[in-house]
Structure formats: C-alpha cells, structure tokens
Amino acid sequence: MIVAMQERATEEQIDAVIDAMVEAGVGVHRTTGATQTILAGVGPTASLDLSKFELLAGVLHVHRISSPYKLAGRSFRPEGTVVEFSNGVKVGGEHVAVMAGPCSIESREQMFETAKRVKAAGGTFLRGGAFKPRSSPYAFQGMGIPGLELMYEAARENGLLAVSEVMEISQIEPMLPYVDLFQVGARNMQNFNLLRELGMVRKPVLLKRGMAATIEEMLLSSEYILSGGNYDVILCERGIRTYETATRNTMDISAIPVVHKLSHLPIVGDPSHGTGRRDMVASMARAAVAAGADALIVEVHPNADKAASDAAQTLYLEQFEELMGQLRVIATAVGRTL
Ligand code: PEP
Ligand code: MN
User: Which positions ≥6 away from 284 have C-beta within 8 Å?
Assistant: First the structure.
C-alpha cells in the first residue's frame, strides 16, 4: 500500500500514520520528497481496510498497489530518485553521468592513462572489473583487491568515482574502501542472497539487467536491495539474449522509457555489452541518451584491441572522446546536460 501525505502534513501526523501502519503489521518505508512524504507499506496489506488510514489527519490518499514491486514502483517516489555521491556527482535528474573504463583492471599504467582521459573528456566514474565473471574458468579472472587499489588511486587522483563488480557476499567487505558504486553483473541479477546483503550496505548499487530477465524481474531484484533500506539503486540495460546473432546481445533501448514509467530508479545504458562490437557502441550510446538514459557505462582502454577481456567491444580513448562530443549535442536536444 502507498500512503501519500498532504503537502503540509506535520511530523506528528506522519508519525501517527506510521504508528497505525506498524500496529496493523505493515512494514513502513518512508520517502521524504521536497514537497510531499510518501509512506510505502509492505506486508499483509491485502486484508486491510484502507479507508481507516484515509481518515487519519494529514493523509492525502491511500492506495493498494497491484504491481509486485512496491518500493521500486514510480508511485513510491513520483519525483524520481537521484543518487548522490560523496563528491556531489548525481545519477538521476537533469544531468547524464558517464562511467568509462576497461572491462578488467590490468595494470597501473592502463588505469592511470584511462582515468586521465576519461576525466578530461567529461566522465565522472572510472569503471574496471577486479572480480570477473568469465564464461571460461581458464580466461583471465581479474586482479582482485590489488587491482581495486590501483583503480581507486587512479580514480581519486583524477577526481573520479570508482565502480566495480561484486560477485559474492564475501567480497563486499574487502571492496568497501575502494568502490563508490557496487556493480551487480547480469549473471548475478538474481543472486538474491547477494542482493539482500547489498540492501544492508550504505553504498549505491548498480544493478544490471540479467541477460534473460524481463524488466519486471529486474525491478523485483531491485526490491531485494531497497527492502533492506538501501534506496540508492541504479538500474542498467546491458542488452538481452534474443535469437539475433548479429550482435552479442540485443540492446533493449525501450527498456529505458519503460523503466522510467514503471519506476523512480535511474537507469544507465551499457552500449558495450549491449552490442559486443566496437563499431556499434557509439550508435547505441547515442540512442540510449536520446531515449532518456540517466547515465552511460562504456568500456574503453588505451590499447583496446589488446584488452584482457571484452576487447571486441572496447573503445579506444580517441573514439570515446569523439563520442562524448556527440553525446553532449544529443543530451542538449533532449533537455539534459552531460
Ligand atoms: C562488465 O561490466 O564487464 C560485465 C561483466 O557486465 P555484464 O554483467 O553486463 O555482462
Ligand atoms: Mn565487460
């Protein structure tokens, strides 16, 4: 259930409504917007008489939610979520953020060169995998924590934030000092134990769509994190498996407006995994921004052809710089900044 409070509702009125909900056995998640407070009730609401809440002082309206996700649904935060980072960078809202870096962290030189160029081009996040989910156990598995130390240093020296993939619960704690944004990869979108644990963490999470997941399943996965009290969740469209073989995945651009309609969470476009092909990354990056993406995550590497993973879809730094110029024009055309 959703209880929308009146714009001028007092703290006492809000507290009284929360008490009544708790007394009815409902768990309450509060969101305090600029003008209005919304209380989302999770629990055995099906059998409740909602009119009883409608009569409480300060309540504007109460409604039952039929959608299976309550905290991720648009009505929980009609104005949209803006995730704010320690340096003031925001994901969601008017600005389009750009995250870029190699698929895998490989060396100090690679990360420092990349960070410098990403920053100069207008990026705000440095990406790089230290724990890599590879199809083959014989492929490069990532540098682990020493790699993250390198990335974090390169990011901070260049005024960037760091984003990296966490594959299992035991990695959360050791990763905490080195990441600003935990990435949950496509293969782990339904690793529910990991999601629950990330709900306990007070650091933003980038949740990538599973390669065979529906948008509803992605939103339900985000609900696992939100219901733990971590409201800083950012979704990511990274392409899904279809019968088409011309590209590595089929980038579902329409997922961007669909998510904006169904949810308040920001959504990022990943044209690198979305296409798997360097020559198509720019087209899909432009399309994602035009469609309203709140950010992009792009694989770039100083020596793209020699990247230890995902070389075929990795942009050279020069290509990334050119793309950034194009994205600025598109962002302006759709009323955003980049
Ligand atoms: C990645 O970002 O390098 C990655 C492995 O992404 P995904 O989980 O979308 O395949
Ligand atoms: Mn990759």
Answer: 251, 253, 269, 271, 274, 275
